Amino acid sequence: MTDSPVTLITGGSSGIGAAAARLLLDRGHRVAVTGRNRDRLDRFTGSCERPEAVLGLTADAADHDAMHSVVETALKRFGRLDAVVANAGSATPDSVIDGDPTRWHEMVLTNVLGPALLIRHSMEALRATRGRIVLVGSVAGFIHTPGNLYGATKWAMTGLAENTRRAVTEHGVGVTLIAPGRADTDFWETLGGRPEGLLLTPEQVAESIVWAICQPPGVDVNTVVVRPIGQPV
């Protein structure tokens, strides 16, 4: 147990992050998850079958000091860090042409600064374990949607994944971008409702995340785009 791998997941108390945490726990890993809502974190950790192997940490993924503290606390609790998953994110439904700029600040910080902070603060520990970084992007980071700033933040994450890979591969650290298509999560509540058609489940996206984390030593899978059958873009 004390030698089992440890993964830190931002935005891990619900949706895709929680599904990935449960799947890792089922495979014998230890997991730290972050979220901004303490009650939601407590409900998640309390529902896990191995509560001793999961740590819930209240933090804003876009806060420098908070993310430094999260990494240090996870290391103190578990003694190592083998993977990090930048999953925390938010969206607005409007356009840069005629949208509300007051809604963009939090989204841009969470979606772009947040993953960069996680990489920065976890890198020393990941070098020690020759670990892995997983960034949860989006199909929107490959296909433009007219005027969509959320999509632009995901294009930024697509770029972050590759420039991070080039910076850390010599240290034995792997970097994977997981880019899901439409998934059945609370994400759609901020966008006016779920789209029609088949959606990926959080568990299906989580399978790709865990697959990337569990690759054999020496294997670096870099980009995985996963859509539900029938998604046209």
From TrEMBL:
Pfam families hit by this protein: adh_short (PF00106)
Task: Write down any Gene Ontology CC term.
Answer: membrane
Q: Which keywords accompany this UniProt record?
A: Oxidoreductase
Check the record and name the InterPro entries matching this protein: NAD(P)-bd_dom_sf, SDR_fam
Keyword Oxidoreductase found: yes
* Keyword Oxidoreductase tagged: yes
This entry's Gene Ontology molecular function terms read: oxidoreductase activity
User: Could you say which protein family the record assigns here?
Assistant: Belongs to the short-chain dehydrogenases/reductases (SDR) family.
PANTHER family given in the database record: DEHYDROGENASE/REDUCTASE SDR FAMILY MEMBER 7B (PTHR44196), DEHYDROGENASE_REDUCTASE SDR FAMILY MEMBER 7B (PTHR44196:SF1)
Its recorded name reads: NADP-dependent 3-hydroxy acid dehydrogenase YdfG
Give the species this sequence originates from.
Saccharopolyspora kobensis
